[in-house]
Amino acid sequence: REDKQLQSFPLVRSVNSLVKKHLSPEIWNKLKDHKTATTGSTLMDCIVCAVELDNQHVGIYGADEDSYRDFAPLFDPLILDYHGLSSNFSHTSDMDSTKVTVKIADEGPIVSTRIRVGRNIEGFGLSPGITKQQRIDLEKMMEKAFGTLEGPLAGKYFPLLGMDSATKQQLIDDHFLFMEGDKNLQLAGMERDWPEGRGIFHNAAKEFLVWVNEEDQLRIISMQKGGNVNEVFERLAKGIAAIEKSVASSAGKKFQLHPKYGYLHSCPSNLGTGMRASVHVHLPGWVKAGRHFLKARCEQLGLQPRGSRGESGGDTGDLFDISNKHRLGYSEVELVTKMIEGVNALIKEDKVLQATFPNVRSEHSLVKKHLSPE
User: Fold this and answer.
1) pLDDT in tens, 101-155
2) How much is the pLDDT for 90?
3) What does the pLDDT average to over 286-302?
4) Which of 127, 199, 226, 294 is close enough to 190 for a disulfide, judged by CB 3.0 to 4.6 Å?
């Protein structure tokens, strides 16, 4: 009998994924036939990336708000494992920008600042499970909401469907346009009916931006040149509050907010704040010391370094994208504060490294590998 039940157990190709680690035959047999109420999604719909691809670390997406509740026997231990949290943790949101009392001490090396969060609205599926009609209805609701934004937040919404070539090129030049073609998003169902129901909003100054129906229903972004992180965070907080108020008054809807996991997102890695607060900063001293040492130092500071072109953009000289590593278990105020304090430390240390650390020309030598700043 048990052998017959295991015949339906999925072959998880991502053998090092958290899905492979936590999906037991007991959980599978208990949940495999269940369908969520909001989008009719199954457990297999949620784990399809771990099953079909061999390169996943997490390997699971929430198809809708129901998924995190209905499939909790898998989601719960996986979420705690990924975020390194104990079962008795609690998450609290705090978008009060006045509570961020630290500032970037030296803005000289900083090129730009960007803070983004994700938000999803109750009653609609998350991007992996959202139906075509839900996606269209959500876009219409957001167009109305954008129309109520005033002052510096006011701007224009650009739907992807029917977009003319001049507008498309301008959005590409501004680095605003999101594209189709991501294998993970495709397999998870997030690019169905492309490009219908999707679009981009930005204000007149191009410092406040919202993606509609990409990986999350809303990807809300505040950005500007230079290192005034506090100003960027304040604009983000005001923009989110204005959108939330408009959606509540016009449609009676709220953002999806889990009592334990904070703001819900398609990917469990973004649960909680869904926040990525980052700066593009020149760190030539750390390049001289070695990128592997910069990575280790960022780990100590609770930060994540990337090349300035993002996760897969490769090395870009001494320009790095430095952001908070954590999402869940910390408030937005705590994460922005931690990012500022960490970047201040990196810039201070970078100046010392520029002046004192030897320039090891043998890039592949054991000296380069083992000679640390310490």
Assistant:
1) 999 999 999 999 999 999 999 999 999 999 999 999 999 999 999 999 999 999 9
2) 86
3) 95
4) 127
Q: Which amino acid is at 358?
A: P
| Contact call for residues 218 and 175 (beta carbons, < 8 A) | no
Portion of the chain with pLDDT greater than 90, in percent: 92
What six digits make up the tokens of 112? 């730009």
CB 70 within 8 A of CB 31: yes
Quick check: 312 pLDDT over 50?
no
Is 286 within 8 Å of 293 (Cβ atoms)? yes
User: Would the pLDDT of 42 be above 80?
Assistant: yes
End-to-end CA distance of the chain: 60
Residues near 341 by beta carbon (within 8 Å), at least 6 away in sequence: 102, 301
The residue assigned the tokens 């100590």 is 300
Q: What is the pTM of this model?
A: 0.92
What is the pLDDT, as a whole number, of residue 308? 72
Q: Which residues contact 84 (CB under 8 A, 6 or more apart)?
A: none
Question: What is the structure's pLDDT at 169?
Answer: 93
Is 248 within 8 Å of 58 (Cβ atoms)?
no
- How many Å apart are CA 240 and CA 210, to the nearest integer? 10
Mean pLDDT of 342-347: 98
